[in-house]
Amino acid sequence: MNPQETSSPSPWRLSVAPMLDWTDRHCRYFHRLLTRRTRLYTEMVTTGALLHGDQPRHLDFNPEEHPVALQLGGSEPQDLAACARLAQRWGYDEVNLNCGCPSERVQRGAFGACLMAEPQLVADGVKAMRDAVDIPVTVKHRIGIDKIERYEFVRDFVGQVAEAGCEVFIVHARNAWLQGLSPKENRDIPPLRYALVHRLKREFPHLTIVINGGLKSDDEIAEQLQQVDGVMVGRQAYHEPWQMAGWDGRFFGEPGPADGREAVEARWVRYLEAQQAAGRPWPQAMRHALGLYNGLPGARRWRQVWSDHHLKALPPAEVRARASAARQEAQVLAQARHVA
Asked: Which of 21, 92, 96, 137 has the fewest Cβ atoms surrounding its Cβ within 10 A?
C-alpha cells in the first residue's frame, strides 16, 4: 500500500456526491454496507421544502449512515440558518450549501450555480449558518459559470466565502452553463479542468479542497489525492458500487465492512425486509443496488429478476433466492460456452 494514500486524516478524504433522485436514505444505507469511512451526502433539499414541508420525510436517516451530510439549496441567510439548525438537531455531521447545480428550476429559486455570481450573498449565508450551528458548514461549487473561465473568478469566490468562515470547499472541476445546456449535459460537455482545483489548494493551503467531476478509477482517485485533500465521486459510485468495497482499505488503511458480494446482498435483503415490514415497498430501495454484481457473469439475469415487477409483492428473501438461482444458471451457461 502506498503510504501517501492513507496519510491524510481529512474527514473529506473520500465522499459520494449528492445526486438528485439517487442518494436517498435507502441508497446511502446500501453504500454504507460497502464502506464505513466514505462520507455520504443527501440529495439537495431546498430550504423551502424543509421550512414549509414534511421535515421527517426530508431529514430522517439511519444511524448507520454516519458520517452523513445534508445538502441545502437556498440563498436567504435566515432560512439557511434555520435549516442548518434542523440539520444539527437531526444529527447530521455537516451541512453543505449547493452553489453548483445549473438547472433552470434551481435558477428560478435564485440558488445553485448562479450563486457563484454573488459571493457576498454566499458568504452571508455561510456566516449565518456558522453562527447557528456547531457542525461544519461547507460549500459545493463549480470552477466558473457560463463563459467565465478565468481562474481569478473561482479564486475570488473561494477567498470571499472563506472569509465568512467556510473551511471546506468541494469543487466540481467544470463550469456550469446556466443557459443552453441541461443538467445532464452540464455534467459532460463543459471540459474538466482539474488544474484549477489544484491551483486553489496551492493558493489556499489552509483550506480543505475536495475535487469532484469525472473521476472513475481508484488510481485516478489516488492521483488526485496527491494534489488535494479529498475526492468526491458521483455516478461512478452509484453505477459501480462494488468499487467502494475497496476504498476503506486503500484510502483509509482499515478493513471495510464488505466480505463478499453475497454477504452484502444478504445484509441488504434484511434491510429490504425491514422496509416491507414497515409498509414501504422494497423495490423503491432495491433500485439503488442493481449494480452490485456488475462485471460478473450472470449479473444481467440477477438484475432482471430483481427488477421484475411481477415479483414486487413477494418477500425480498424469496426474490433473492430466485435472482441467485438465475445468476448461477447464467454463470454455468457462460462457462459451458467458454469451454465449447
From this structure: 21
Across the chain, mean pLDDT equals 93
Which residues are marked as active site? 101
Residue 193 is which amino acid?
R
Both ends of the chain: CA-CA distance in Å? 40
Report the candidate in 155, 170, 160 with the shortest Cα–Cα distance to residue 125.
160
What distance in Å separates the CA atoms of residue 96 and residue 84, rounded to the nearest whole number? 9
Just give the CATH number of 3-252.
3.20.20.70
Helix axes 299-307, 316-339, angle to 10 degrees: 150
pLDDT digits (tens, 9 = 90+) for 310-319: 999 999 999 9
Inter-axis angle of helices 316-339 and 261-277, nearest 10: 150
DSSP notation for 182-207: -HHHHTTSSPP-HHHHHHHHHH-TTS
How much is the average pLDDT of 264-284?
A: 97
Mean of pLDDT values over 238-253: 97
Q: Say what the pTM is.
A: 0.94
> What nine digits make up the cell of 81?
440558518
All CATH 3.20.20.70 domain ranges of the chain, comma separated, are: 3-252
